[in-house]
Amino acid sequence: MHKNKSLDQLVLDNENNIENQYLEENIDSNNYENADIKDLNSSEEDNSENKQDTSESENANSEAVTVINSENIFDIDEQIIQNHLVTINQIKSKTLSKEFVNILSNSKSENQEGDDNKFYFIIKKLYEIGEIQKAYNLIKEINLDLVSKEEHLTFFQVIELNYLLSTFKLSEVCEFKNYLLEKSIVLPNFQLEKTDIFCLTLENKFAEAKLLNSLLKDSEKSIDQTFQNLFEFMIAENTQDVNFESIHLMELKDLIFLYSAMMRINELPLKEDFINIDPLNLAIPVILSDSTPINIRIKAANKSFFDEVISVDSLSALYQSVDFNAEQFSSSKETILNLNDDNELIMAFYYQLANMQIFPEDRLKVILEYWEFSKNIGLEKIAYSVTRNILESIIPSSENSKHNIQIALAHISNQNYEDALKWLNISDNSKVNKSQMQYVKFLINLYESDDLNTIKEFLKKINNNFDSNTSNQSLETIDILINFLDIETALISNYEYTKISDDRTMPSYFLIRDIKKNMNSQKNLTLFLLSIISMNNQNWNELHPEHLNIILEAYRIYDEGSLIKPIILEILNDLNII
Description:
By secondary structure, the protein is an all-alpha fold.
């Protein structure tokens, strides 16, 4: 399947395709510079992007959203941007998170000097949430000579340097470093001095690098031991006996990109810390690092796949690269036990085991086991995706009809609704679970349709069918949705007043007031920002019902309700209803 391309090339090709799609659909490509990630073993540089922005949705929860063209974020009151943008650190709704990033990254201003502060806070927020590529793109659009505040200019230069380090453009790193030194720029945490020492070691100018490092240690109040360990490793004549202590908990997050570049050029293993600190920008270095343990590389790849940074082809290639032997495949059940719950390696083993089966019935048996295992660890979407080619090669028949529901669900996950229906049509009506069949057909209708009628019919059917174990909070949320969608059905009646008070908080009065005011004036972007600020990094099922009702009404107005369907699907998913 991947014999003609290396894993590195698959990842980089995918990154290139993502960037090209983003550039064509959302921005004037003349104003942006392409990013690249440099392979450690190659002098060539390939264009890359650190996250997919406008890819086709993999399901309704992640469908692409469109930035409002009639408004600009620079029209929003500066107090909202300056005082409240800082509070948005994690948006748990994938739909709202994508819209938020798109709005910030498409910011345009005709008056840079007047919008200087807004530019700073927008770029700062993109950087803080891991969107270093988009922060860099905005910086390249503005005239740095017009930046009025020195601390803003310094921050922009830190981002530019870190972007070049994160994409492993080491020649450009050293060129930019020279430019900053000529301008006598001072960066926090002695980052410029450390980058200068790093570049000197790359040029084999060890004596000069040692001299500057001595001056650095004299200047630092607290010696950066991580940098010192890396530097000593780089200049060591014999590194075979050097016991390098990798990075654990780092206080200086801004230096993580320098550390990662130093580790990559020396082919040192990257630990899981890198994924946790900045998964969007440091996952690709981990994936491409041959010296890093394969289970950590797979963990990074799984995370990147969910974040839409890499494609299923790249993920499959990494799974295929794990080295299992014939004896392990011949005793597959024993092998899985011996992997000691190493879920990443087990996922790769199942993938290879499924692909090496000759007969369709054997392939089906393995992928059914694979799906069951992946479901138990929350990775069924990955298992469905990497087995798509196998799945499409299996022809529906009476012999395998007993698995039709499982196979249909896999096809639905892969957005292959036509094949999902084919499998449903071979059901033996005497043996089929009718409720499961109705549910699968509902999912197909749900994802194929753009309107809300399928959801309305679904909620109408499930109303008052909840058992006594259903929590009052879930019942309240369903009741809010029924009222919001104007569903003509009886109100939920099986609730109890066992708890009079509600622990869920409501936003402040003034915030609610301003949301309602902007609903009336239909100021889209202000309404959007105030709404996500009010959610305070909460899941949908954690919102107070009255707050949820206000939010739904706000998004009915925002962009003519374009986000309502994916939002409702996220709510139902949070409630484990779909």
